[in-house]
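Box S2. Input/output pair 1.
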Amino acid sequence: MSLNLTDVTLTYADGDDRLTALDRVGLDVPRGCLTAVVGPSGSGKSSLLAVAATLITPDAGTVTVDGIPTTGLSRGELTALRRDRIGIVFQQPNLLPSLTAVEQLQVMAQIDGRKPRTARGRAMELLDAVGLAGQAGRRPHQLSGGQRQRVALARALMNEPTVLLVDEPTSALDHERGAAVIDLITRLTHQQASATVLVTHDRTHLTAVDRVAEVHDGRLSLSGRSGLSASAH
């Protein structure tokens, strides 16, 4: 498994009490498969994604990324793990205004120490994969909302992560563009062989995903489709 959460519990301070965001959640996601996580606002979806991304340390349980247990890793080691093995697509694309689409991707490779020529080749391949090779020289203000989201997706794949985490990619898009983005994420998950977790409140675009997991009050359960395994206690 490329992403494994075992008995993960996460709580937050709530006055004198503790609010349980995740309640002994278990989730296994192999490479090349896409899991959609759905649930109402406040159910724990974003907390699950943050824990999987190693941005938040759970109270209990273990998170393993590409065979590497994250428990006990230093802040620097976690940063390196995210840089090398985890791609994250946030709800807002967060593109740098002064950079073109291809430069948004090249920056990621430069951080990883790749040579400029190699980085540009990889960036152009990914922009072509998301249907934006012809927009490589455009800056964010020259792109539509859907195009900016696709650039963000390509950027997350730039360093060939084994785990891809996507947060509400259709929230700012209309139905047609939202469906196109979900189809694109599904296709790239299979092509790039990433273990992908997609958090969404929109159930209308989930026919192509490999498995759907539902979160309610911090507990995870599965609904149909094979290929992955998850558990909640």
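Box S3. Input/output pair 2.
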Amino acid sequence: MSLSTPAAEPRRAVIGIGRVAMWKGGSVWVGRDTGQARAHSHHAIQITLAAAQPFRIRGAAAEAWHQTSAAIVMPDRPHLFDGCGHTVALVFVEPETLAGRELVVRHRQHDVDLLGDEGLAARTAALLSVFETRGTDAALVQAAQRIVEHLSAHPAGPQAVDPRIARVLDRIREHPDAELPLAQAAAIAHLSPSRFRHLFVAQTGISFRAYLLWARVGLAVARGMAGGSWTDAAQQAGFADSAHLSRTCRRMFGIAPTMLARGRGLKRLQTAGQGLR
């Protein structure tokens, strides 16, 4: 359902997140009391899901919000999201995977597309049940992957890019915190640096450096949500400092890392000015 833009945006300025779990080629973020994120874009496809109560979402260029319980956002498309204080799951799928490529083919006509699939509600309920009952990360990932596979008719993990680029992506995903200069990445792909740079963009749609940042911000969020300090998480993920992580996270997710809270008792910060700058 499409709604007119309200006269004033909701007062919630942050998002609370309960848990983050990752797999090669994707991740799942689930939390209560989810609030509003500013306009942002990221490299992964975003599948946004709720159970009993809807959220709001729209493309950054659109004037109307959609109120829905299931939507998909295409990669690198600016958008806004408001969880309306409800429990929401975000499933991220990298477009370099077979599942990601199929999702892009099916939904690329829209920045944000609503999902009305009849089989999705039960799978969403199963995912949120794992979160509510404090299931393992493996169970959370499995439930999220079932949603990806249901929507794409492809397994969630396998890649769909040139094998030479796939080797580099595997290296980044396995060691996103490790230094990997472009020349070294090109050597892994058995290409010259200039040829590698061109082929990487052609296969992924973004630059090698941009992909490294995407992988590292995901790692930093996962480590911060696991209980470490955000300063330590930034350093462990290869960021120059916590401010660099904060800028990157704001650009990709519309929030600062310190606006994320782990566990069942989510802490909601009151203003976007609080947190890393």
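Caption for Box S3: The domain at 163-252 is CATH 1.10.10.60 (Arc Repressor Mutant, subunit A). The chain has a mean pLDDT of 85.
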